[in-house]
Amino acid sequence: xxxxxxxxxxxxxxxxxxxxxxxxxxxxxxxxxxxxxxxxxxxxxxxxxxxxxxxxxxxxxx
Length: 62
What we know:
Blueprint: H1 3-15, H2 22-35, H3 40-51, H4 53-61
């Protein structure tokens, strides 16, 4: 188990039943980076990965 798994599990436990929009998520990520600028690159990578997630499926099925 990676250290980050604990945070991911806490997120799922506390908010797993909620539905959120990607606009809401984008706002929270911006807010997080504003408060923690040292995490700008990892957050950018996560956001890009999420944004392009279906692209890999399109290439595989293409």
